[in-house]
Every structure is written in structure tokens, then in C-alpha cells.
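Why do we bother with holo predictions? Because pocket geometry can differ from the apo form. Keep that in mind while you read this record for adenosine-5'-triphosphate.
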Amino acid sequence: SNSDSKTDESSSSTNNSSSSSEGNNETNATVEEKVTIEFWHAMSGTGQESIEKIVKGFNESQDKYEVIAEFQGSYEESLTKLRGVGGTKDAPAITQVFEVGTKYMIDSGYIEPMQKFIDKDNYDLSQLEGNILNYYKVDGELYSMPFNSSTPVMIYNKDAFRAAGLDPEKAPETFAEVIDVAAKLKTADMYGFSMLTYGWFFEQLVATQGGLYVNEDNGRSGDATEALFNGPEGLNVFRFLDTMNKAGTFGNFGTLWDDIRSAFATEKVAMYMDSSAGVAGAIKNAPFEVGVAYIPHADEVKRNGVVIGGASLWMSKGIAEEKQEAAWEFMKYLATPEVQAKWHLDTGYFAINPKAYDEQNVKDKWAEFPQFKVTVDQLQDTVPGLATQGALISVFPESRQQIVTALEELYQGKDPQEVLDKAAEGTNRAMEIANKTKK
Amino acid sequence: MTFWRKSVDGRTAILYLLPSVILFSVFVFYPMFRTIYLSFFLTDQNGTPAINVGFENYLYLLGSSEFQNSMKATGLFVFYTVPLTIILALFFALLANEKLKGVGFFRTMYSSTMGISVAASSVIWLFMFNPSIGMFNRLLSLFTIQQVQWLLDPEWALISVSISTIWMNIGFSFLILLGGLQNIDEHLYESARIDGAGYLYRLRRITLPMLSPTLFFIITISLINSFQTFGQIDILTKGGPSQSTNLIVYSIYREAFINYQFGTASAQAVILFIIILVVTILQFKLGERRVHYQ
Amino acid sequence: MGLLSKIWIYFLLLVTSAFVFFPVLYAFLISFMTGPEIIQGKFLPESISFENYIKVFSRLPLMNYLLNSFIVSASVMLGQLLVCSLAAYAFVFLKFKGRDFIFFLFISTMMIPWEATMIPNVFTIRKLDWFNTYQGLTVPFFALAFGTFLLRQHYLTIPKELHEASQIAGLSRFVFFWRVVLPVSKTSLVTLGAYGFLTTWNMYLWPLLITTNKSVRTVQIGLKQLQSQEIATEWGVVMAGVIVVIIPTLILLFLGQKQLQKGLSQGALK
Amino acid sequence: MKRVELIDVSKSYDKQVDVISNINVTIEPGEFFVLVGPSGCGKSTMLRMIAGLEEITGGTLKIGDTVANHLTPNKRDLSMVFQNYALLPHISVQQNITFGLDVKRMKKEDQRKKAADVAEMLGLTDYLDRKPRELSGGQRQRVALARAIVNEKPICLMDEPLSNLDAKLRAQMRSEIRRIQRSLGITMIYVTHDQVEAMTMGDRIMILHEGKIQQIGKPIDIYNYPANPFVATFIGSPPMNLAKAEFNEADQQLVLGDKFKISVPVEEIGKLPRTSMTVGLRPENLYPKTSDKKEGDVFEVEVTNVEILGNETIFSFKLGKEEWMAKWSGQWHIDIGDRLSVHIDFESLSIFEEKSGELIKKTIDYGNYVANKEVSS
Amino acid sequence: MKRVELIDVSKSYDKQVDVISNINVTIEPGEFFVLVGPSGCGKSTMLRMIAGLEEITGGTLKIGDTVANHLTPNKRDLSMVFQNYALLPHISVQQNITFGLDVKRMKKEDQRKKAADVAEMLGLTDYLDRKPRELSGGQRQRVALARAIVNEKPICLMDEPLSNLDAKLRAQMRSEIRRIQRSLGITMIYVTHDQVEAMTMGDRIMILHEGKIQQIGKPIDIYNYPANPFVATFIGSPPMNLAKAEFNEADQQLVLGDKFKISVPVEEIGKLPRTSMTVGLRPENLYPKTSDKKEGDVFEVEVTNVEILGNETIFSFKLGKEEWMAKWSGQWHIDIGDRLSVHIDFESLSIFEEKSGELIKKTIDYGNYVANKEVSS
Ligand SMILES: Nc1ncnc2c1ncn2[C@@H]1O[C@H](COP(=O)(O)OP(=O)(O)OP(=O)(O)O)[C@@H](O)[C@H]1O
Ligand SMILES: Nc1ncnc2c1ncn2[C@@H]1O[C@H](COP(=O)(O)OP(=O)(O)OP(=O)(O)O)[C@@H](O)[C@H]1O
Ligand SMILES: [Mg+2]
Ligand SMILES: [Mg+2]
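The structure, written out:
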């Protein structure tokens, strides 16, 4: 099998040399000896730019390995592609998969758990952010290397707060406070509060109350069979939104990130929920002062914190061993504070290695934009637990779609419990089929 | 197969059709049979058939209100887009068919929408539909008309998507119809003009009948394409709000590529196929009779 | 044509084409805007800056992508023209049993949603080992029911006397096809060519699925790389990319429409 | 040089049955065979069947010695001038002409030469580089003709190839076509409406009417001895005058349309039927009355119409319900309403049985003038 | 009833300049105006300009009293028979015929009646429900004719409307067209290649050659007194024979092609130029030698070709390099190589100046026969 992998390596390297001559690689002379691996990612725009810089840094930092980062479309698209080659020697060494694909990846049989290399290499996991690792750990084993991680935050218009006679430094914390403030902020042109119609935010608002999404300990102790999000915590969230919607203080800006962001930037809404990765953009685009706060929670419970979102990196099974090694080396490189600092600054994603926040360039940035610190604080303040670890189900995308539909129907004036139950039902059916067909 | 050997024409036909037949077999028929096959299964997360459920997928779909809603939305969408696209494209094509200086420029403008990918044009439309900064709402507010939540209001979303779809398809229909118009022999108009036939009369009695093969073609194609609209839905509304724009193909896409339910996705594809087939057969039966070929 | 009707037509041409072209123009304007300008919904850029264009070119190997797109689109176009015109010829000028049935079978291929056949096709391409190759990007699209249908409709309008005269002149079927049918059908071939080229040029999902590296990737994937989801997209850059990608297609359309000539079969008959 | 044989050939269209019925004729190798008949009688259909463009619904077509019913047109080795030209619109005149040669892979050089020759002959030299749509009607027709001629196929079918040419050019073309046909020994089947072409070009003429053969024969024989009244009126312009006639036993006279009483020579009396019959008389045989004619066969008629053609004058008069025409050489100053005396020879009458239309009395061979003899009449 | 006036009208195409140049002619209201000329001379172009289908590149066209250069065709209130029929392929014969009536929103009922009438007249009754492609060539042409007739417009343009009809039908059509034109007072402009149509239908004929007017006049005048050799050879079939001639002062004879020596009457001598000239003689004026002719003007010729047309015989012979033709009434048994005596009257010669082509001696008006007089020659 060794000779096998040798030949396919050389063929793949000739394949790549054609691209590197046109692309931006400069490793022609030594290409024969180097182990070349592919890194499939779904980062476009600034994310991709940053990844390419990091990869370049890695390739230059040593001369044994060569990583080629290739954009493979959106998370869904790249996952679809992975299914075409998963488990074969054509698979890339590293694939970036979104957080809701975690369960799918674990079950797929395409991957080598990260824990294997951590144990072999005695890698010190504690240097990484625990609240991020939690999500990707199942039964205490780390399956994939966290990479681009984000959490939701609440972003608000400080100028509007001032105009409404509110304290711009004190953002509302509970559902009731938000409802209250939203009512005060509401003007003819401006809604008080908004949230992207996206399941992720709902999950977060449930989790911060300590609510579980599905049974079987949020799917972490076995295959989940029943949705729990239509329980009291979920209902709280829906009531919260419903109240504002009915009061006319809630603005519905649909399912697209850019729509809600431009609504905020054009002062159509005073508070909204965004990803921590969107903070930089919000500050940059807004012609007013922007505040960032923790996401609100129901009044009767204490805040649990947030669940990590974003994506992680997975190592393929069935590829040559030296490729796996190369991939592991690269992942370690990624986790270094310098790289993470750069990553954090470029993209607004968290640094998985908190030491990165001690880097000077991060400090400088934070000084200039204290808002960034809020996002990190919120993450670090999170109480670890089943709820904030996040649910693990294979049909997550479908379930999220059910939530979107439920939210949309809610905004049309339907009963919160009714629409939630319908979403739960749909999720249950999906889980049932998934469990039935599982090998 | 013996009847093939009967005529030289038959044998030649095989030769001429061979490339198409081979490619279709590999890239269309084989996947189609696979789709039909899959539609009788529940698949696992990797898309391999796991449990044979017979017609259950179909029964489930036909009973599901979501799917019924999809069908309804698709029907409405087809009804909104096809006639308008063709009428507008025909109007533009007639304008651009006049022998005038600089008409090539206008032709390029009209057909330009064909040069923009669905993804790119959807993004542009997204901007225009944007509730806060979009063109449309700002125009409405300029005239102090009640603003419309174009893509967010279930009442409007399908119409908005239809408007953008009409725009996207107009370039293509325009080009086809213009080609058809160019193909009409100028001489046919001469006698009519001498007889004193005005523009509309010539349009009705000569242009449209002579254009009928092209019209027939573009109607058929537009119907089929419209049933299969996907890209703009994915970008503009993702099927929402409240499923109001969840057209069948988008639903198939979501089922297959997001939910990994290839069984039901395939069943939907098969149902869609049958619907389009019926529509097309009707179209051929009713339409081609009115088509005038040379 | 009277002067009045000329003015009237020009007026209609101007107004309607402006409407049709407006979204493109809008994209063009956006491509000069800065992020805040866009997200705040400005209509005209405050200043014309080419920064977004510079970004597009620096972020992507755009020339390389454009070249790939061009090669792929041109090949698909030629392949389609050939395969479809052959098939359409058979459907119009050859008499054989089951002709209508086979034609309808062809038509039926249009009714299968492409999304439903995509996954099996990716597997087929992998079995053929055509990942990251031009074949993989082009060959599956050579056969096109749409094109066959379009050309068939045109062939049906060719005066049958031309076929007869050619038969009498002793032309073989192929020579008739090549030297008479094709030239006389120029308008439809141009239309189909434009369609084939542009749809391929605009294709995104397929090239994405069967390429894993930059070597043969096309420009639409590049465009997609300019947009992000969670992080705010720089729409100015995206629109600059869109404009860069549209320009070749507009040029092509301009050249193509010139080939749409009147009366190609005029003068054939008394 | 090939024989073309039609055995019991019939043709029906969807909308019209028996367009052609039971045609039996053999066209000899190298023969110039002219096909005439009224518009819509099936001439083009017949040519198209021979060419293989139209399915033969009944009977057998033989070309050379092989049954050709199911032979494709390109296997029949013939050329054709279409009634509606069927030029290739996208290529130049030159290319249209050499199209068939090019197919046979003749050298470009030779093609050009041939095209130049035939274009010269047809007066198309200046138009070789034009597209058909830039030509006049007559020029297009000549291109169609050129294309058929240049191929030099053993069989050539021409469907009214000169109909859109002027008289002068047409006369020239007539002799050119005839010359080429003779020198190459082409078997020619030629459809025309032109009397002069029919009379002068063909070795034989076939007259078709409603899809049925009326008569086949040498042009002059058909002119002189038409097999039935239809042929009689179809060949010859103005057509032969017809009238119902009866033999008046008492006067031993033939009575035409109750008006003309023509004395019958004794030896002929026996041959005439006693029932009524149709009598035909060619307009040129209604002679102006000359001094040396006896009174008996001179009749006075009232002119109802006059046409002066330059070298001849045609006038009409009524005979019963029929309109008769007379043709006199030269230009006559005749006015409508004039009363003229004409005389009729019994010898020049053609007499047909009324029912069957069969010719029972031929006109005399009045072409019996011998060269270098003096004219009597 | 409308006047059509062309003032200095010219036309050029991209590929051919001066297809028509400087045409000046006025066609009177109700006139039947015949346009003839060799193929490609610009007849159709002229009609199309009058109809408004072709742009006029120079000059002024007046219809009635208004300048019509830029009038659209539908404003000109005329009808036209196209040389290539221009039938609408997708509608039935009936609908084709009534197209113009329908445009005028005539009642369906009336339309049908009119169509039925005209179809009856043109023998199309059985074909009213067919599509044009299911018709024969001649039937199509009749549909084109029907369409123009049924409209009853004050001006009617016909471009070779009878070219594809048989002689019998054509004769019938000729008189029908003439009748309708007269009864409705239509101003008719009629293009034809047919000598008979040109001679018998028109009030005036215009002869066009290479886009220029050669002569305009009454048919018989043009036949008798052609303005130049071109017209002389163009009108009349077979054409007038031409030869170069010189006047031999010594013998007082006119010498044609170094061969025919014709004595000139004394009173004519003064009128002849002394330089060389072109002499024309119509074939029918090359009479067979009769006993009463004096030897002087009888010449012996060697027959090079013979055509028997039924009622006349045409033979050719060489005069110098020219081929001359003679036409004799009746059927003559002449063979190629026979030597015949023909006689020529000086009176029947037309003499043209050689350079300018101007007619300097007219032929006598030899149509001077008076009705009811006996024939002399
Ligand atoms: N579109 C065109 N472009 C260039 N030349 C043309 C065009 N149409 C006609 N011509 C030329 O103009 C001349 C006159 O054409 P026109 O059709 O008027 O002839 P015509 O007198 O009707 O001849 P015919 O008797 O053969 O129909 C011809 O020499 C022809 O080749
Ligand atoms: N496709 C068709 N369908 C039905 N009838 C047809 C079709 N084509 C021709 N006919 C009829 O067949 C008859 C013979 O047509 P054909 O063309 O052979 O006539 P033709 O002798 O050539 O006449 P012409 O001298 O007018 O050209 C006509 O009455 C015509 O109407
Ligand atoms: Mg015919
Ligand atoms: Mg003409």
C-alpha cells in the first residue's frame, strides 16, 4: 500500500504542479520530496484570503509538507463533494465541515478522530479554548479540530439608545428588558429588535436558558429520537419574539445575513442578533456608534451562555499515513497563538487558542474596538453543560429548516406552541428515518 | 432491432443520433433510472438505499401538506412567469427586429440578461428587493406608496421571485424569438403591405403564424424550465417565507443536499417529471397542431 | 418607415431596454462603491474608484479562471452545435420508424431536474476519472435536448425543395447536412451557440462538484469565492467580479446578434 | 443515355386522388420527350415521381433496366430543373451551378471552367458572384437551368425551364438545350406550356389531361391529327375551332353549328357517321375569301373581336354558341362588327365522333408544299 | 383610375448600380400599360418601386397627384401580382385570396362570395381549401392573380402573371384581365415576356433595356416602326432579321451582307445615307417566291435549320455571319441543306442608322388590307 500511495502522490503532485504554476504556489523545485496534502474549505471572501495566508505561512515554515487549500463551495456543497470521495484515496487530507455536520461526520466512517493524534503526540489540549472544544468532543474524545468558531451576540445602535434616552453602555439582558427597550427604541422608521430568521439563533436562545434541543442528552449519549426544543425554553423564545412582533417593535428582515445587516446599518432596526464574526462588518458599515452585548435570556433563569458555531477541520481516513501526519502538523500550526491571532483579526472568528488574545496586535485592536472583547467574554463566561455543549443530531440542517418555517409562521401571527410543535414533529420524523436507515 | 435494418434512412439516423443517445444514456437516462429506483427507498446519510419502502415515499408526499404547497407554488410560479416572459420577449423581439441604425446595441441590451448567471443576477435582485435599502422600496417611498416586504411577505414573495425570474429569462426568450423573426421571409410581408394590412394585422396574420414553430418551441421550453426553477429561490428566499416559494425543485434540492433524504427527493423528482411530461404532452398535442411548418 | 414611427420605435427601444438593462447598470454602479455606501443603500457612488476591481484581480487568479471558462464554454458550444445539429437532422430529414417516439424521449430528458441527476453523474465522472479535466466539465453537456429541439424547429422551416434539389444533385446525406442545412440554419445555430456558451459560462454547481483544484476551475466559482456567509460580504468586490465576468458575454452577444441575419433562405424558391 | 419506362404508374395525394392514373409510356434513350397539358394536370407530379421526390402510389417505374420505384433520388443519376427553381439561397450563383460537380469531387479548376462556360451560354457571367436573392426572376431560372445542364447526367428533367425568359432569350435557349441534349445524348423529359417549345423541341410530345394520357406522338402528327377534341384544342394557338355538326343527307352537306353548310366530296360521304359529330377547324384554315374560290364554301361572319399580333391577325366570330377564331397572316384592318367572308375547305376539317371523341376524319396533310415550288393559295 | 407618373426615376442596388436609370413616363388613368424587356432589365424593380417595396434612389414618383416616393405600400392603394407569387404559405387559398378584403374588414359573407366568383373565373374553385404548397405551379400563379383581381384597386401591377399557364388558359385569362381592367377602369401596369400578351393586351408598350427606355408606343406601331435595332429584334418572334447594308451607288442597289442586292425605288434613293447602315427585315417578309415576282429581288438561300410550328414553318439561313430566319405560313416540307428562293420587297425593309440606331426608313404599312377585299399576295 505504501508504493500505492507513492504513485498516487506523484500523480497528484504533477496534477498540482500544473495548478501551482498558474496559482500562487512557489514550491516547484522541492515538490518531489514534499508530502502534499489537500485542504478543502468552504471559506470565501476574507476568510479565504486569510486561510491562504496561513497556509502559505505553514508551507514556508517547514520543508516537509505542502498544504494546498482549495475552496470547495459552501458547507453544503463541499460536504456533497466529500461524499463523492469520502473514504477513498481521492479524499482530501483535511476537510472543513460546519458544526451541524459533526454527527454526520462521526457516523460517516470517512474520518480519523483527532484524539488519535492528540494521544500519539501527547498534544496539550488544555491550551485550547475549552468552551469550543466541548462542542466537538463526544464521549470525551475530540473528533475534529475546531477552526472557525463564532457565537451569536446582540449588536445595538448606541446613538439610537441615546436618542431614546437610554444608557448606551447598558444593553438589555433579559427577554423582558429587551421587549421593554425595543418598545422605547421603536420609531416610525426604526424597529426595536430583530433577529435573522435562522435556526442557529433559536438554538442559542434555548441553550442559554439551559434548555436541551433533543433528548438523549442533546444527542450526546446516544442517537436522539425526540425533539425537546418545543419545551418551555423554546416556547419562551417564541413568546419573546411573538410579543415584540405583535407589539410592532420587532422587525422581520428575513433569512439573509446581508438584509438584516443593512437594515441595522441604515437604522431600520436598533438591536439585532448577529454572529460574532459579523461584528467587525457592523462597526465598519454603520455610520453611528455600535454596541455589542451578550444575547438575552429568559427572565426566570440565569444565563448559561452560548453554543459554539462555525466549523471544524476533519482528518480523512484511508489516505496515506504521511498525509495524515502532514495534516496533523498543519492543524497544530493552526492552533498556535500567532496564527490564531491573525485569524481572529482577519475574520472576527474566535481564536481557538486563548493565548492569541495576549498577542500585541490583538490587544491593539481590542483597544480600538472594545466590542470584540465582549464576544470573547461571552464565550468564556459560558457555563459548560449539556445545553451549551450543543446538540448532536445528524438531521440538523433539516431541523433548522423546520425552525425557520416555524419562525416565519410565528411572524405571520400563528400560535407559538402550535408552530413549535409542528417543527418538533418534523424533526422527529427526520430523526426517525435517519436512525432507521443508519447502518 | 431488425426494423432498423430495413431502411438506409434508419441506419443513417442511428449514426446521427448515436452521440446524443450515448450521452443521454450515460448522463440522463442512467441517473434517471437511478432516481426512480431510489424513490422506492429510504436512504442512509450517504445516499445509499437502505430500506425498501415501496410507494411509501410517494404516499407520504402526496399526503404531505408541504408538498402540496410546493406543487401549488410551482403551478402559480409557472403561471406568473411563462406567459409574461414570452409576451415581453416577443414585444422586445418585434421592436429589435426593425431595420434601424444601432439596433444591434439594443439587441445586446435585451439579451444581456442571458449573459448573467442566475447566481449573479439573483444577488443584484436581492439588492433591489432589500426591504431597507432596495430600489423598489425607495421608489415606492418616493411616491409615498405603502412599502412592500418583497421577499418577506408570503403574499409577495412568489411574485417578487417571479419578477426577477421574468427578467432573468427574458434575454434568452428574446434571443430565440428574434432568431425566429429573422427567419421569416421578408417577401411574405410585401403582398400584405400592398393589400393595405397595418402593423397589427400583419403581426396577427403573418408574423405570429410564421413564428409559430419558434413560439411553440419557446413556450414548451419555458414551461419546462419554469417548472425547474431553482437558483434564484436558493439565493432570494430559500423557499420561504412560510414555504411560499418552496418550488418543487428547490424542495428536491433541500431534501437531497441538505437533508440527505434521497428517497423522498427522488420521489419528488419523479412526480415532477411526470407533471412536466403530462404538460408537455398536452402542449405537443394541442400546440403543435397550430404550428405552421414550411 | 415613416419618421414618426421611427421615433416612436426608438423611444420604445430606449425605454424598454433601459428597464431590462437597469439591474446590470445597478450592479455596475455598485461595483464602484465602498462597503458602507452599499449597505446604506446609496444609488450612485460618491467617487469612481477601481479599488474593488483591483481587489477582484488580486484575490482571484481571474485571468486563469476566465481562460478556463472560455475553453470550457467554447468546447461545450461546439460540442452542442455538432451533436444537436446531427440529431435534429435525423429527426427532420430522415424517415425512420419510431422517429416521433425517440424525439419525445429526447424531449423528456429536459423534464428531469438536473439536480436529481447530478449526484449519479458525479459518480460517473469519477469512474471515468474525469475529475479536474476539461472532459468532465464539457462532455456531459454535449447532448442537449433543448438544442436538438431548437434546431429541429428551424430545419422544419427549410423549404423542402432544397432537400429535393440536393438529392437530385447527388448529395449524400452528410454533404446535404453540412453544406446546405447548416448554413441555411445559421440564425438558429447562432442562437444555440449563444445559449450553450452562456449557460456553460454561467454554470456553477457542476464545475464546483467535479473540480477540486484551480487547474480547470471556471470563473463562476471564482465569483462565489468573493461572497461569504457569516462574515459580511464585500458586495462592491462581488459586483466588480460580476461586471468583469459579464463583459465577455456582452461582447459575445453583440457579435452573435450580428449573425442573426434576415432572409437566409430567401431566393431559394420562385 | 437511359430509357425511362412508366408502367401503369399512378399517384394520389392525401387531398387529391388519382392525380396521375395508369400512365404507360416508354421514353427512349436519347429521346427528347415533351410533356404538355393544362395547368394542374400532373406534369410536375410525373417528373417528381421519375426523379424520386414523390412516392409512386401504383405501378412501376423503370430507369434503364432497373425498377426504380424505391431508388433514392441520388441513385437515379439524373438532373432536374424545378418549376420553382429550388436554388440554394446561401451560396453564390457560381457555387449553385457547380454544386453537383463539387459533390462528384471534380477539380475546382474544372468546375470553374464549366461554370464559366455554361454561364456564358446563359448570359449569367456577370452574376456568378451574386446570391440568388439578388437576381431577377429570369436570372434565377437560368441559374436553375445552368445547374441542370452542367451536370451532364444521362437523364434530365426540366419543368418549364424557360417560362420566365423573354422571347429572344428563349429562342436562343431552345436551340442550346436541344444542341446539348443531342450532342450528349441525354434522355430529356421536358415540361412546357409554350407551343413553340412543344412543337419544335420534342421528338415526341405527350399530352396529359387530368392525369391521363391523351396522345403521344410526333409534334406535327399531333398537330395535324389530334386524337380527340381535347388535344385538338390544346395544341395550336389559337386553338382549333370546334362545333357540333350533322350530315344533312338531303343536301349532302355537313352542317356546322346550324350555319356553315359545307359540301362533302362524294368519296367522303360514306365515311361520315349519320349521327351528330364534332368538327374541328384550325383558325388558320379559315381562309380569307379569294377570287378563285367558288361560292359554296364561303360564309359571311360578324367579327366580335380582333387581335393584331404584328405578323398575323386573329379575329373571332360566333358560330352558334361557340366562339370561333380565324387567323390570317399579316396585319388586317378589321373592326369589331365588320362582316367578313371566310371560306372553309372540307379537306381541312377534322371530324371527331361525338361521344368517344375519336378522330374519324383527318385533315389533309396540307403541308404538302415542296421546296422550290411556287405557292398556290 | 389614377395616373402614375415617373419623373427621372433611378434605382441602384448595393451590388448593381443603375438598374433603372432616368425613367420618364406617364401612365394615364385607366390605361393598360405593358412593360417588356429582356430578363434582368429592371421590370420587376420598376413595379416594386411603384408599389413602394423598393426604395427609389433618384427621381420622383407620382401616384394620382401626390408625390409617392415615401408613401408606404399600404397608402398607395394598388394591388400587385408578384413574379414569385408571394403567397402566404400558412393559410388556405381562399384566405389568401381574401386577405386584402379582410384587411378592409369586408364582411366574411361578402368575402366568400367574391372569392368564389374570382376562383370560378380562374378555375380554382376546387382548390379553395388547400394550402398553397398543395397546388401546382400554375394553380399558385392563378391564386396570386386572383388575389390581385379581387381587391379592385384603382392601380394594378402584374409581374408576368400568366407565365406558368398553358396556352389555352392563358388566352382565356388574357381576355378576362382585359375585360376586368376595362370595366373597372383600372390603371394596369403589366410585365410580360409573351409576345401575344404584349401585342394584344396593352394600350401602350414600353420596352426597357438595361434600365433605359427604348421605346414607348402602341403595340402595332412598335412592331412596325421599331425605334432601334434592339426593339426591332425584341418585338416579334422570330425576331426581325438584321444585317449590315451599304448602298451601291453604281447599281442603285442596297447590298445586304454582301449578298442580297435589292433594287431601290428611285424616289427612295435620296433618303438613304451613303454610309453603311443596319437593315432589318421581319421573317414573315421573306416571302416564298411566287410566279408573279420579278427575278430581281429573289435570292437563293441554303437552309440551315427548319422548325415546323404547325401553322407555320420557320427556317434559317446564313447571311454573312448573321443567321436569318424566314417564317412561312403553313407546314412546309423543307430539309436542312435545301436551297430555297425567297424574295424581298424593298418596301418591307426597316433601315436604321448604323451608329445611333435610329430608324431612317420605315417599313410600309403593309397591313393595308381592307376587310372584305380579296387578298393579292
Ligand atoms: N437585391 C438585389 N441586389 C442586387 N442586384 C439586384 C437585386 N435584385 C435585382 N437585382 C438586379 O437588378 C436587375 C433588374 O432586376 P429585375 O428583377 O428588375 O429584372 P426583371 O426585368 O424583372 O427581370 P426578369 O424578367 O428576369 O424577372 C437584374 O440584373 C438583377 O440582377
Ligand atoms: N401536396 C399536394 N397535395 C395535394 N394535391 C396536390 C399536391 N401537390 C399537387 N397537387 C395537385 O396535383 C395536381 C397536379 O399537380 P402538378 O404540380 O403535377 O401539376 P402540373 O401539371 O405541374 O401543373 P402546372 O402546369 O400548373 O405546374 C394539381 O391539381 C395539384 O393541385
Ligand atoms: Mg407544374
Ligand atoms: Mg422580374
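Chains A and E do not touch (no CB pair under 8 Å).
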